[in-house]
Amino acid sequence: MKEQRASRTAERVAYERAAHQILDNPRVFEDPLAFRILGVDARSAREADPEVFDGSTYSNRTRAYIAVRSRFAEDELSKAVRGGVKQYVVLGAGLDTFAFRNPYTESNLVVFEIDHPATQAWKRGLLEKAGIAIPGSVTFVPLDFETKTLEEGLKQAGFRDTESAFFSWLGVASYLPHSAVVTTLRFVASMPSGSGIVFDYMVQPLSLKPVEQQAFARLEIQVNSEGEPFRNYLDPLVIAKDLENAGFTDVKDLESREINDRYFKDRTDGLRSTRLTRIVSAWV
Questions:
Q1: What is the rounded CA–CA span in Å between residue 281 and residue 262?
Q2: Which one, of 56, 57, 63, 9, lies nearest residue 31 by Cα?
Q3: Around Cβ 25, how many Cβ atoms within 10 Å?
């Protein structure tokens, strides 16, 4: 993202989550704050970002994927909490709303939202304007990775690195160089046993079918126009080795068929996730 400017990609993702709330039935991801945080209703949302609501195969699959990756992350978070994890770190939080609809008490789960200072300031302004209360269980951590590491930012915010934690890292890895992805994964893997992460990544474009490559090219044009180009495409074999070398012992790398079988099976509306991306859960 451009320095000192809130992320346009974060806003677009928020519109995708909001669109899912009204376009798809049944929903795979429930977010009662999706429209409120944007400060729009269904009509004004359509006017603000009509491409999200146009009903094309491209928009439907993009929306389905963005909804399902949030659902998967929160499903895995529930597993972590049942295992005793009491710290949740949302990396590149954007306009994610979990912290403000957190079903757990503050003693059971605290949330650390990590994001670029400009995007985080923008989000806090939207929360205030929408009248969405900020609970005591959430800590905002504005972090510019050019001046401070993730470990430094979290420690200064009160994060306890001697206790297990769960991390979500959605829609971020593709905007970072491979070395930065590996560094983040190694940090998570250094946490105590029981810690875990969910993240997603873009696959190599040449591994896709021609029609999928067209969809990828459309997405690439979109993010380039917003000043937030992709910097990293990953091979599943490479990321598997990265995770093994980092020290993760329980890894699931889900491609679209597995995601669709788990979350979109037997739907009558044809809603399906895209093959452009994969979702990973990894545990220490």
A1: 15
A2: 63
A3: 10
